[in-house]
Amino acid sequence: MLPDIWKKFFKDERFNRDSSRLTRKLRSLRHMGSTKVQIGSHEFLNFSGNDYLGLTGDLRIAEAAASAAGRFGWGTAASRLVTGSSTLHTKLEGELAAFRGTEAALVYGSGYQANLGVISALVGAGDTVLSDELNHASIVAGCRLSGASVRVFGHRDYDDLERQLNTIKKGRILVVTDSLFSIEGDTAELPRTVKLCERHNALLVVDDAHANACLGKRGRGMLEIQGVTSQVPIVVATFSKALGSYGGFVACTEEVRDFLVNNSRPFIYTTSIPIALAAANLEALKIVRKEGDALRQKLATNTSFARNKLESAGFELTGDYQVIGIRVGNPEEAVFLGNEVEFHGILVHPMRYPTVRQGSDSLRISITAAHTEEDINRLVQALKKARNSTAKKKTDGLTRRQNKRPTHQSLETTQSAAADDFGDFDDHPSSQSMSAVDSSRLPPASEVGDFRPPDDPPGAGDTLLVNPDKFEGNENPTAPVPKDQEPSKDEKVDSAEPAKAAEGGADDAGKPAGSGDSKDDSETTTEAEDAASVDSGKDEPDADTGDPESASGEAASDEEIDEELPTDDPETSGATLAPEQMELADPVIADIEGGTKKRKRKTMRQKKSDD
User: Fold this and answer.
1) Catalytic residue among 182, 240, 264, 533
2) What number is the average pLDDT over the span 311-332?
3) For the structural domain made of 59-288, what CATH number should be given?
4) In this structure, is the dihedral angle defined by the CA atoms of residues 180, 184, 185 and 187, taken in order, positive or negative?
5) Of the residues 42, 136, 241, 393, which is catalytic?
6) In the annotation, is 210 catalytic?
7) Which of 89, 210, 385, 393 is catalytic?
8) Cβ atoms of 64 and 282 closer than 8 Å
9) Which DSSP helix (H) or strand (E) runs through 346?
10) Domain residue spans of the chain
11) What does DSSP say about strands 346-347 and 42-46: parallel, antiparallel, or unpaired?
12) 410 part of the active site
């Protein structure tokens, strides 16, 4: 049982995250090859992963793991220094050294563990680590764990790095940087960094994770592209990105490897990776050695095509390689854009603080060799629609803020909102506020299932049935009938024309309308539930429709009234595709909406007693 002080701590932390819109949640999905995933019943094109060569779905890697598991079992039961080191582990490290062009290599459980183990082992109290401002979180953690003095230099600001190097008078110096930065896709200037380290007797560690195997003539990453392969003594990388598998490694000299085996705590005190995983990693290296040239060329072609298309569409991009950043600037807009793109069947992850610096929120796009030109065209179209939605959201949000919602008293006294056909709309008291909402702003049926027909205009007592932020400001709400506007006993209430339900077909992004479950990774919104109820085909009856009197014009019983009130059949009820679990923000409006049937029954009972 948690102590009360800890309960309060967790509660306060959750409140702070929710208030800052920084809450992240996990969601389950099914991987379908290298470029597609399935969430629920919907399929999405994946532009959020790091599978740069498209090898995660390669069955040769899976078969190698299965074959090794059949021979050796799965677990190793101990760390490498006890009984966890097999001949396949040793062979894998030899193949890695040959692939990276170094004397030796050492395998870790993950890329995070590799950075943690290398940095914390190399420096300690009395030493100094200089780290790029935008280095990966694993580098930051390794620096803190080391106990050394940590100095952060400006992102790719090598004048700042040199100034700080000049001020260090004692202890060993370690400089660590990413080669290809994982959010915006820009790169470090490694030749200049190498020269600064040589001048100040500093040891350089480069994390080449996002360039390993997918960049360079032989796949040796950014070091090969910038011509410093033999000048960087320690390189950290992973199997989990371009190699399509899992695990991390360090490529280094024999002397450095021996030091890490004896001093790197994340290596010493961790059970070794499964033998089957070592076999899978060997197979991934084998594929890259044989087919790497073709895969890297395909990746370069796709990257160039995507960048040209996005730039032609007016997007401002960051970086030069397969990691493409689209700077947004604030977390709310980043989440909104991510949700809108997902609504069109594309996964593009919004990157928010604390993953990025405050004010640097962005969308991160990952291009792979497995994507096709058609996939990239769909991505560009979805991003353009999301951008248009953002513009409409800002404009419509201003309009909504200027038009105050009616109070309970104003709902009771609004006369013109009572008529089923709203009478002469030009004379309606809210005609000015409604002038901005016309049929031209209604979304096409292929893109959204939640809307009312153009002949059912909103009135002063509007209740939104569609999240306005989700559907580009195309709200078309219904107005509840005020109590004093109920039909007299001589009047017959006309049934409202049934709402036209969305077709439910695929939109131009290739997925059913309304299937864009909101994204939580970072970020979660309630639109996921909205979209789910749309896809399920469940409709809510319109509270203002139905014929409370029988065909003979005589008063009906309560049972008969119940039968004639709107049902859940969209063909007969005038229902909309409003989400069943939508929570109305205004409790007064909610009471009026929810009480419509009750008022009609009460009216009919009163008519019957009067007769």
Assistant:
1) 182
2) 89
3) 3.40.640.10
4) negative
5) 241
6) yes
7) 210
8) yes
9) strand 346-347
10) 59-288, 410-501+539-611
11) parallel
12) no
